[in-house]
Amino acid sequence: MACYILQLAGLSLGGIGMVGTVAVTIMPQWRVSAFIGSNIVVFENLLEGLWMNCMRHANFRMQCKIYDSQLALPPDLQASRGLMCAASVLSFLAFMIAILGMKCVICTGNNVKRFFLLMAGIMFILAGIVVLIPVSWVAHVTIKDFYNPIVNTAQKRELGEALYIGWTTAAVLVAAGLIFCCVSCCKEKGNHYRYSIPSYHTTPKSHHSGRKSPSVYSKSQYV
Known about the structure:
By secondary structure, the chain is α+β, with helices and mostly antiparallel strands. It has 4 helices and 9 strands, in the order H-E-E-E-E-H-H-E-H-E-E-E-E.
């Protein structure tokens, strides 16, 4: 029972991590405008993501535009695109393999289920690491440019919401992977019952009486 509860917990965390990975990939809030100074009135906010940049106005209206050229993007955003797409696919495959290894699925044997859970755990951990790399890379570049005196004030950016969600998602994926790796080594001991097939024995005819002896019913139960 404890192993089944851990399986449900790992599957729930893995599902949350998978959804979070896809959400972080498509969110435009990787970098946001940095407003430096106390006398600045904010009328619009610039958001930069992996696939588009958006302009959020003071009336909460947002306009987005897809990047015209991929090669014109900074190296960190170019690499983040591929890594986040790979993490999305990896987390999805890990989630589907974890479902096949669940205790409630009866299409496979116990040894195969443990193998599926182990593979799902490893893939979830790899997906968490793959998510952590681009998120931390973009955060490092953003912070470095923010404190760089050479960079113009209008070009300075701050960390967006997608980066914080990405760090949380990476932690959730790694936690799900560790749970599945532990569950794959778990063996529950329960009561196993085995019933033998009922047998009916008939004694041969008696030469003296000429009548059959009554049938004897035997059933054995092994606990």
